[in-house]
Amino acid sequence: MIPSCSKTRNPFTGEEANAVGVKVEGLSKKYDNATVLKNVSFEVQPGEIFVIMGPSGSGKSVLLRQIAGLDSPTSGTVTVDGGDPSLEATRERVRLALVFQAGALFNSLSVYDNLALYPREHRSGDENAIKTKVMHALKILSVEDAANKFPSELSGGMKKRVSIARALVMEPQLLLYDEPTSELDPVMSATISEIIATLKQEYSVTSVVVTHDRALALTISNRVGILMAGKLVTLGTPDDLNKSKDPRIVDFLNPKIDIEHPRFKKLETHDKETQ
Amino acid sequence: MKQLNAILEGVGSVVQLMVRALSYAGTLPRQSARFIEQCYMIGYTTLPIVAILSFFIGTVLALEAGYAMEGFGGKEYIGSLVGLSMARELGPMMTAVLLAGRVGSAITAELASMKVYQEVDALTTMNIPVAKILVLPRLAAVIVMMPVLIIIANIVGWFGGSVVARYVSYVGISPETYFAALRHFTKFKDVVNGMEKAEVFGFVVVLVCCDIGLNTRGGPREIGAAVTRGVVVSLILILVLDYFVTKVLQ
Questions:
Q1: I need a labelling partner for B44 at 20 to 30 A (CA). Which of A15, A47, A159, B62 fits?
Q2: Residue A70 and residue B127: Cβ atoms within 8 Å?
Q3: Cα–Cα distance measured from residue B126 to residue A170, given in angstroms and rounded to the nearest whole number
Q4: Can you name the CATH fold of A7-95+171-274?
Q5: Is residue B76 part of a domain?
Q6: Residue A50, phi then psi, degrees to nearest 5
């Protein structure tokens, strides 16, 4: 069910702001001769958790970069709250944060300074106010002990949490996650999923999550889109996906390990037949 | 044709970066910590190698001049030759070459790895202009530190020449004679010309290395390639600019 909530609540001040939606229309992206995204269209409602799933190399991260405004489309449009996310004017109007797959923490800065960079640069409060905000964000993610550490001293799970904390300090209206549970153990993956759900429940932030994590997608999302070879092949609620009879969706969500007839052998046979 | 396009694209990219960085000049007072850090990196850490190189350039100049002038009795002019050569040409050029090798390579490597490991993308999503916090403090620091490096390079080079003039037997002129000739022929204008040259070289080296670093795509291998490209392009630009700046300043 798409949430009716259209207000985000600032995790630091409790103030309400308009949640933002995302609209992707006829989006295609080509790199040299390779078409990575093919006419992708969907809409994310304000306050919704929208998950994009798909096999490796299907264009999920490229799609997320387009929504973040880090890359421009070959054709089609992406709008965040009605504005082009690659424009500085939109970025000034809409607070958009991206949690990168590898964290993208600034290696030369401590965890505290990583989080304090945004409020310092945007002059949102004096140093005491910034300290309160940074420590609060670290506490929400249970990584306050890491404040004085450098990114190179953190484990994978801590890096992810610090990365989410850094995004949270930006008081985002739209939070984008790129594979937030990749390379994590099952318990840590569940923890990150709980954090994403909590941020949505408590602050009603619009979230777009790119993931392979079936449990995350089917447990905490409002809707899931499945991207295959650059095309959005299905879009629905977790229930819709569970009931789907489409063999591609069934195989993707519940892949069986068939030792008698392994997939790679089928691919080899297919390749020989087509040659 | 492709190469010409690539060169023109590169020039366009560098000019755009310069304009963007300079448009944030008003924010420099608030970036004093970054500016001081870059002054330390560009100035203080480069100083020892500049001093060593300048000393030996001065000594070699004096040796060669002594050898050449021995035949026609012009040894008392060695000071003028070392003084003018260091101030007008060798001081600025060799300092810029060292800057390209030491600072330029470090800047390219740092910014290229920030780009490859998505730190630059993170800044973009935070709406923090890269030109403001990564490029402007470096440009400001090189503008401030280059004259300091040049003055030290000149003084150490002149001193190196005087050591050879005094202690190498076939040169054998007194420090008084050496420095008298140096003072007589090397004018304040020559030193200032050298500094102006160095400012141009330093600014271009830092700007080009920032641009190459920020345009790096790929992985660790591309970071290495970017560093090489940054240093090579800087060295070529130093030599090409040397001719034109010398022509303009004459």
A1: B62
A2: no
A3: 8
A4: Rossmann fold (3.40.50)
A5: yes
A6: -110, 125
**Is B243 a member of any domain?**
yes
Task: Choose the closest CB to B121 out of A70, A96, A170.
Answer: A70
Question: Does residue A169 belong to the interface with chain B, where contact is any CB pair within 8 Å?
Answer: no
Domain count, chain B: 1
Nearest to B137 by CA among B31, B234, B209: B31
Chain B contact present for A94, CB below 8 A: no
What pLDDT, in 10s, does the model give residues A19-37?
A: 789 999 999 999 888 899 9
pLDDT at B172: 82
Most B CBs within 10 A among A31, A61, A66, A70, hence the mutation to make, goes to: A70
Residue ranges per domain, chain A?
A: 7-95+171-274
Radius of gyration of chain A (CA): 20
Q: Write out chain A residues lying below 8 Å of B124, CB-based.
A: 69-70
State what percent of residues in chain A have pLDDT above 90.
49
Split at pLDDT 50, 70, 90, the class of A273 is low
- Structure tokens that stand for A196 in this block: 């994403």
Structure tokens at A36: 């990575």
Number of H helices, E strands in chain A: 10, 11
Q: What is the pLDDT of residues B208-232, one digit of tens each?
A: 999 999 999 998 999 999 999 999 9
ipTM comes to: 0.84
Identify residues of B whose CB sits under 8 angstroms from chain A CBs: 114, 117-119, 121-122, 124-128, 133
Domain range spanning residue B109?
41-249
A6-15, A93-102, B24-33: segment of lowest average pLDDT = A6-15
Cα separation, A78 vs B239, in Å, equals 46
